[in-house]
Amino acid sequence: MAVRFLHLADVHLGTYHWGSRERARDYGRALRWVADYALQSRSSSGEAVRFVLIAGDLFDRAGIDAATHDEANEALRALRRADIPVIVTEGNHDRPRDREVKSWLESFNDRDLLVYLSAGFTSEPRPDGMFETTCRLAPYDFRRGEGSYVDIDNVRVVGLQYLGHALRRRLAPVAQALDALPSGRVARTILMVHGGVEGIIPGYKAEVSRDDLAILEPRLDYLALGHIHKRFTNRDLDDPRRVRGPEVREWVFNPGSLQVWRRDEAGWKHGFFDVTLHTERPQGLEARFVEPPHRPCVVMTLNVGECATPADLLASARRLMQQEREVLPVREDPLAFLVLTGQLRFDRRDLDLGALDSLLREIFRPIAGDVADQTYLTEGLVEMDGGEGPIDQARLEREVFRQLWLADERDKPYAAALAELTQQAKGMVLDNLPAADVADHLLAELRKLRQGA
C-alpha cells in the first residue's frame, strides 16, 4: 500500500516585511497553490494526496489580521471539503506570548479545519536533586480536539510543539514515549518537529545536532522538520568525510519556507516535499521537492570602497541596478534589494540612503525592497587586540559582551564563555522563546561554568 502526503513548513502567513501589503498576500497565494496542488492529485491517474503536514509557523505572528485569517480559512476549507486532513504543529511564530491566550492554531483546530498536535512533558525531582523529564503522547481525540498523534490509514503522525533549545534534552523522553505507543496496524511513523539542526546555516546556534537525532532514527520512517528556511535532508547533514552512497537512508526532511522570508534567503530553493510512503516495502520512501511559483527576487551587493565620492556611489549603484534589471525574467513587481559593503571613503553623513532607495524604486518598481548599509568607516574602528584586520559584527558584539563581563572580578576566568552565552540568550529572545526557557538555559549554563564544568 502507498500513502502520499505533502510536507511543508514555515508558511508565515501575514508577513508584512518591508511594509508591503501586496507582498503579504504572496504568502496566502503560496498556501492556496499548495492546496490546489493537493486537490488536483485527486483527479490525476496517480496516487492521491492523503494528508498535508505543516511543521510549524503557519502564521508569521500570533496576532493575525482579517486578511491573513481569510487566506488561511480559504485554503484549509478547500482541503477540508476534499477530505484531505491538514496536520499542524506549533512553531515559535504561532504561539501567543501569553500562553493563557487561545492561539489561532487552536481556533482553526476547534473548527475542524486542521488537526493540531502537541505533546505533554512533565518533570519530577530525582534523589540526586536533578529533574527527570517524561513525555506523554496521547491519541488525538476528535471530539475534544486535542492529542499528540493521529493514525491515517496505517501511517502514524506524531507532533511536537516548538520546544526551543529544550528540544535537545527532550529527545530521549520522546524516544521512550514513541516506544511505549501501541503499534496496532501502524506500518510507518512520522514525527513532526519545529526545530533547527546545526550545520545547515554557518554560525547559527540550532536546537539540535545531527548526532542528537540519532536516537530517533530507528524509531521513525520520516522526520518532518520546520524552522530553518533552507531545504535539506539528513544527507546534507552527514559528515563529508564519510563515503555516501545509495545505501544511506533518507529519513530527515526539512522543506524550508514556501517564500523568501528574508533578504539573505533569496538564493535558496523554496517549496515543499511531495512524499509517498510504501508501507509494505522496506525502506519504501519517495520524496520529490516542489517549488510553487515565486515572485522574482534580486539581491545586489555593492562594494563602496570603489567609490571615492557620494556621486561615484550613486553612479555605480545605477549601473549595477540597470544591469540586474535587464536580466530579470519578469519585468514587473519584483523583490529588489541593495546591500552596501566595504569601507566608506567619505564622511558617513554624506551617505544618502534615501537617494539610493529612490533609485532602486525608479529602476525596479519593486513590490518590496530596501537598501541595507553594511559598510564601515575605517579598519581601525573595528580592530581588536590579537585580531587580524577587520572583524564581523558578531565578533565585535561578542567582544563588547566580554568586556562587560570582565568588569566583575568573579567573572574574569570565564568572561569569554559568558560573552558567548549572552549572545545565545539574545538569539533565543529574537526567536520568541518564552522568558522562562531563556532564564532556565542561562541558569543551567552559569551553574556549569561556576562549578568548573
What does this structure look like?
Helix content is 30%, strand content 21%. By secondary structure, it is an alpha/beta fold. The chain folds into three domains: 2-290, Metallo-dependent phosphatases (Purple Acid Phosphatase, chain A, domain 2, 4-Layer Sandwich); 297-377, no CATH class; 380-450, no CATH class. The chain is globular. The termini are far apart.
Layout: helices, strands, pairs:
Elements: E1 2-8, H1 21-40, E2 49-55, H2 66-81, E3 86-89, H3 104-110, E4 115-117, E5 120-125, E6 131-136, E7 149-152, E8 155-160, H4 167-180, E9 188-194, E10 222-226, E11 232-233, H5 234-237, E12 252-254, E13 272-278, E14 285-290, E15 297-303, H6 310-327, E16 335-341, H7 353-364, E17 368-373, H8 393-406, H9 415-430, H10 435-450
Parallel strand pairs: 1-2, 2-3, 3-4, 8-9, 9-10, 10-12, 15-16, 16-17
Antiparallel strand pairs: 1-13, 5-6, 7-8, 11-12, 13-14
CATH superfamily annotation of the largest domain = Metallo-dependent phosphatases
Radius of gyration: 24 Å
Largest sheet, in brief, is: 6 strands, mixed
Taken in chain order, the helices and strands follow as EHEHEHEEEEEHEEEHEEEEHEHEHHH
